[in-house]
Amino acid sequence: MTNPYPRFGAGLWHFATYVDRYASDGYGPARTTLDAIELAGQVGDLSVVDLNYPFTPGVGLSEVKDALAAQNLAAIGITPEIYLRRFSRGAFTNPDPAARKAALDLMHEAAGVVRELGADYVKIWPGQDGWDYPFQVDHHALWKNSTDGVGALAQENPDLRFVIEYKPREPRVKMSFDSVSRTLLGIEKIGLPNVGILLDFGHSLYGGESPADAAQLAIDYGRLFGMDVNDNFRGWDDDLVAGTVHPIELFEFFYTLRKNDWEGVWQLDQFPFREDSVAAARAAIEFLKAVDRGLERLDFEAMQKAQDQHDALTALRLAQQALFSSL
Amino acid sequence: MTNPYPRFGAGLWHFATYVDRYASDGYGPARTTLDAIELAGQVGDLSVVDLNYPFTPGVGLSEVKDALAAQNLAAIGITPEIYLRRFSRGAFTNPDPAARKAALDLMHEAAGVVRELGADYVKIWPGQDGWDYPFQVDHHALWKNSTDGVGALAQENPDLRFVIEYKPREPRVKMSFDSVSRTLLGIEKIGLPNVGILLDFGHSLYGGESPADAAQLAIDYGRLFGMDVNDNFRGWDDDLVAGTVHPIELFEFFYTLRKNDWEGVWQLDQFPFREDSVAAARAAIEFLKAVDRGLERLDFEAMQKAQDQHDALTALRLAQQALFSSL
Amino acid sequence: MTNPYPRFGAGLWHFATYVDRYASDGYGPARTTLDAIELAGQVGDLSVVDLNYPFTPGVGLSEVKDALAAQNLAAIGITPEIYLRRFSRGAFTNPDPAARKAALDLMHEAAGVVRELGADYVKIWPGQDGWDYPFQVDHHALWKNSTDGVGALAQENPDLRFVIEYKPREPRVKMSFDSVSRTLLGIEKIGLPNVGILLDFGHSLYGGESPADAAQLAIDYGRLFGMDVNDNFRGWDDDLVAGTVHPIELFEFFYTLRKNDWEGVWQLDQFPFREDSVAAARAAIEFLKAVDRGLERLDFEAMQKAQDQHDALTALRLAQQALFSSL
Amino acid sequence: MTNPYPRFGAGLWHFATYVDRYASDGYGPARTTLDAIELAGQVGDLSVVDLNYPFTPGVGLSEVKDALAAQNLAAIGITPEIYLRRFSRGAFTNPDPAARKAALDLMHEAAGVVRELGADYVKIWPGQDGWDYPFQVDHHALWKNSTDGVGALAQENPDLRFVIEYKPREPRVKMSFDSVSRTLLGIEKIGLPNVGILLDFGHSLYGGESPADAAQLAIDYGRLFGMDVNDNFRGWDDDLVAGTVHPIELFEFFYTLRKNDWEGVWQLDQFPFREDSVAAARAAIEFLKAVDRGLERLDFEAMQKAQDQHDALTALRLAQQALFSSL
Asked: Quick one: what percent of chain A has pLDDT higher than 70?
């Protein structure tokens, strides 16, 4: 019997603890890569994880492989940490050529780990590429460095997929890859088949996009290589538990994926600063299962007909009834 | 002797009065197209205006020509009002094909007026094209209608330029052409040489863009066909007097234009709801003249050097000194 | 048999048509006060309406009385239009003393209508009291005029209640009575028993408040005299149909009212620009009935226990299950 | 000869290095309290600093005294770190009574340090007091704990001043003391003379307030005990260098202080993540000196006259000319 639900995944950082500029001693005791894998296994519904790289000090690749196997987990992607101190003034766009090279080296290394683990992609999350002040950068040069860097990386690793996770800001006051459209513009300029988007629902939401519209656009360009979900209050990347604040827009997001027969993993990108991370993952997956059941119940034909007339009241009634009765 | 300053222009609506959903009796007595032209003439520094079309009832094209001539003004563009009641559910994307056709007819008519007046462009401002609610529209279809519509129009009028003025929202809760990147994606898809962007500084600012970065991107694609300025508080299209709230970012915007040898008209798009419209235009132009003088004073080489190092403090000191000493 | 649901009401403007600065010809043909009352009657679940004053030209008080009676409606409040052209630079704070006096006169007149109709309150919605630009006003004087004006009005009409509907902005770029806390500060300064707050859910939401927290605070000061609901995208007063975007926070709002035994009318303040207004009201009320049923199902004791521990995951699961199973 | 300028100060954290959830290895090598004091001394224009407490491990009070003396600095305040891990679920409002007690103990300890150093105030910055999710907390209880806690502290230390630094959010998704009005409401409820506000310009700006209006209100209640400045993009507490983005509103803020004869220290609260911290402080002070000179040049009488008429254009011209000619 096949699993009735989509495959679920999570960024492994979901099971880490965090620091910020205030709780500089961390929201809990530090955890190793292996600790986090064990917690991911406890969730019970996860099939895959996306792992930060480098692993925590002292943890080797073979240990990671064993730990994943022990939890019945596979790696879906590797996220090289091109946002640590070394790269705080940029990875692809650092004014220091040595830092740029170090970032590329780290990403090539991550590519090797992707091959070793049989994962799907190298995640590119250029959180330090951007600017903080007016007049700080030459915008032409900054963007060129951004796309040239990704392009070079993708060209030298044609056997792998590279997914860009765009975000409006944080940690930079403004990030270069800030929106679905900007990222697609860049990808089209690069012109390689192995560069795509990992669409984070929350980044899209707080960037003022409709995540459903963003997903549709990325799909129309054949570039929606991955996605993950969470929630926020539209002003910041709060990385709250999915479905807790904006259930309707989350449902519209998955409706759009289903309608387009998009069949990737439903991943979580949550930061449970003050919550139990296993419980936070389970709460989200419980909601996502309801979303999946809701899509089964939804009358797609009636929805299409309502949308063809831009009939919001009918469309929303259909959506509310399908989703809420599935919880 | 040549004029030491750039050419200045304004949307003719700057000299109208306004209604909104509260002051439904208007912020002042209604003005005709001819009244507005006369007020535009009183500013003293304007060379061109962008005119709404249709003109107010009873005003004919020849009268408009005469009125412009009397004020020593030329038409730079025509803005067909594809956002009135007839088009409140969309112009290019209206679910009613008859409304879509009416919108295209009006734009073709506006194209004729552009030819008659020897203006530069037909302005496309699709403020009613978008959506209000989650689930309201099929995003694929909506975007396709948006780009197909603009494409058809541009193809049938290859002798004219069409400029799209993007904006995040208002009057729709969300507009289709919402950002510089989305608009460029659409324009690239259309693939015609006569479609470009009219970049409104305030739309960019409150959309979370850096207007300077947006201008650079549009220039890099060869699509910056026009621009206008104003100011706001980054949360709405307040259309305040240029330079009153964000002088530094306005200066960076013009710095970017100058650096790229962009030589179009410096237009105003202000809505002085409660101010004297001639005084509001003069206040803005006074500031823009200071911007122009500031650009003369600015050490472009030193600025480039600072930006190459992402040295915000040096770059900002250069910018502040050049601009503020020019007021 | 008693009605199982709370009493429902609506601002009569819900059934008007609207203009804005783009669709200056209006989103539909103009409607009279009597037209709107008839539409309100068609909703079927409304018990009361809040009426703008003056009525549309040519409509007298006795006609309004008859029209209300014919639809089985009562007046809950009167909203004097202190935001029309005459007051576009302020009602209580207009720099012109004659305009200030005219505003007060209109409000006194509205007080008379409240008495005639046996309504509950005069609504004070000072949308034009505030400022647009930095440096525009003397903030001490502006705020003093705001509170002095309301105080004088309330003192001269001690038999009536005056409710202030605060809002962050629109039509002014910034309003004086902008938040629940500012308004309570003002009310405490005024120090009269007959001045309170009408809390608009959407104003609170897009002002960055938690509407539930705002309601609790107003209740703790004994000043929650009324409320109305709608929805938006947290960036503007979109006045969308209640429950369509933020169902959870709407439920938390009503949970807070119920927990405090607050027993007023559940009013609608929606602006269905492009929707059928009767259908939009019915859709909202259908949702509000589900909210009411959800409150019946909700385990208040378990919720309190979860909240005492700040246990968000448990609290949200309780809320989701109670609300969504009630739709 | 007296110093022509106001006294300048800074939060000592200005001279620390930072971590965030991405650059978890920090934006630079860790610095001790003593390191930071030495850097503060290098600025050259600082008279006072506000110190975090506890000091970095191994640094004692007498060393701090010596270090301050060596740099010719005095302590203006002490900021107990009631936002570290121990207090991540709240200081005054933590659901765990032991954590609440620990927070109060730390603040009492800080009060002792204030006495020892002859400083002016204990800073209360309750960044972890608030909530993250809808339904998470009982808002009545949360606010009562907030004000009761501050009240108890102030009552037990009547010889000292306690200043609350409000902020909309971060690190909590929503903070209890979120705005000037809410904080004043709480202070009035507490009813003690030794509780006031430390107004952070940037917190006010990104909270949607006019910082000038906020300052005026706090002054009108006799509660403006301190202030600090920085800049941001109105969406987050970016803590950028003062004057770099919003010079006009910064000038209006100081204009309001001067007009009310407020004579406290002009403090900096900047987080130069990627800049040299001494250079960042100097850049800000250079700007603040221009602000001070600008206030000398400004025609206060003409400004008042313009503001009495709500004449934004005249008021802004006066302000621009006074400020910009002073740089």
From this structure: 99
Pairwise CA distance, residues A239 & B105, whole Å: 47
Q: Look up residue C199 and give its DSSP letter.
A: E
pLDDT at C151 over 80: yes
DSSP state string for B267-283: EE----SSS-HHHHHHH
Closest by CA position to A210, among listed B176, B91, B236, C237 = B176
**Residue C57 gets which letter from DSSP?**
T
Q: Which residues contact C129 (CB under 8 A, 6 or more apart)?
A: C90, C91, C92, C93, C142, C146, C172, C175, C176, C177
Tell me the ipTM for this assembly. Answer: 0.97
Q: Is C266 helix (H, G, I), strand (E, B) or coil?
A: strand
The strand pairing partners of B11, in sequence order, are B50
Show residues of chain D in contact with C143, CB under 8 Å.
213, 216-217, 220
Provide the whole-model pTM. Answer: 0.98
Nearest residue to A125 (alpha-carbon basis) of A161, A165, A86, A68: A165
Residue numbers in B near D277 (CB within 8 A): none
Q: Tell me what the pLDDT averaged over chain C comes to.
A: 97
Q: For residue A303, is it left (φ>0), alpha (ψ between -120 and 50) or beta?
A: alpha
Mean pLDDT for B158-182 is 98
Torsion sign, CA atoms C195, C196, C200, C206: positive
- 3-class SS of residue C95: coil
Closest C-chain CA to B233: C173
In chain D, what is the greatest distance between 2 CA atoms, to the nearest angstrom?
60
Q: How far is CA C189 from the centre of its chain?
A: 22
Residue C313 has pLDDT above 50, yes or no: yes
Q: Measuring CA to CA, which residue among A293, A285, A283 is closest to residue A324?
A: A293
* Omega of the bond leading into A168 within 30 degrees of 0 (cis): no
pLDDT tens track for A159-203: 999 999 999 999 999 999 999 999 999 999 999 999 999 999 999
Hey, of B275, B324, B325, B326, which one would you mutate to test binding to chain D, going by the most D CBs within 10 A of its CB? B324
Residue C144: strand, helix, or coil: helix
Q: Which residues have C-beta within 8 Å of that of residue B120, sequence separation ≥ 6?
A: B76, B77, B114, B161, B226
